[in-house]
# Entry
Amino acid sequence: MSRYVGDPIVFTGNAHPQLARDVCAALDVELGCANVFDFANGNTFVQFLENIRERDVFLIQPGAKPVNHHLVELLIMIDAARRASAGRITAVVPYFAYGRSDKKDQPRVPITARLFADLIQTAGADRMLTMDLHAGQIQGFFHIPTDELTAQQLMVEHFQRRGFDGVVVSPDFGGAKRARAAADLLGMPVAIAEKRRTSNDDRAEMLQLIGDVVDRDVLIIDDEIVTAGTLCEVAEMLRGQGARSIWAAAIHGILPHPALERLAASPIASVVLTDTLPLPQERRGAMLETVSIAPLLGEAIRRIHEGDSVGALFR
# Structure
């Protein structure tokens, strides 16, 4: 039994309204009414069009492009909800932008992930709900309860339904744990591609493959695809090592230009993504498939609202 008035109430900014509608459908609730728009001078305006006093409010806003604009939208929505006397405010950020900036790995650079966390808390969020952080320790940047969901089980179930049988490949050592977990669930061996990042522009030098993929179907698993440069280089390496077919899966698909063009020209047969970020229909292409996270987010929101365990979803 929730201590807040009524059902959970979900609002969305302009980053990914369709995901918010799908989450509400999974929860069997109506999407909350709000005005979120920019004035002619570029300032953002937010107004909730229904009473949220003592309500359990969930604000869905992933870090979609333009990232900084959508971040400010989220902060203003949080502030508006706090000033409207919401009972509790949960920032639902399926894709936590700036997750790669989680440490000071070069001289005179910021730790932007920590700044992002501080801004969300300062605005007035009481709780954070996110998915598949680039680095798990980012949870420690928050001083409010933070739940990190994972879509890995959804991905595994997708490939189980397809009858995939082969080798799971991590594109680098950093993703080895993720790939190992997926391989264990699928009952398959794992291989690791070794790479060295050479600059800040997502370019990497492929060094070697640890594992055997000769005459095997392979599945490259990563947390996100940005420019697809590394992914395509790994695919070329795998083809050179004798892989029979190459598939790829990632939780977050950022895919700026020319990522899709690179993927289309690569040996990769198909790429599976979740809908943590919007992907316009005209950018999808024939090789992209989507697995929805809306039912998982909806169940997590229900559990948070009712005071049940979120961690139990993954036991």
Q: What stands out?
A: The chain has a mean pLDDT of 93. The CA atoms of residues 27 and 299 lie 7 Å apart.
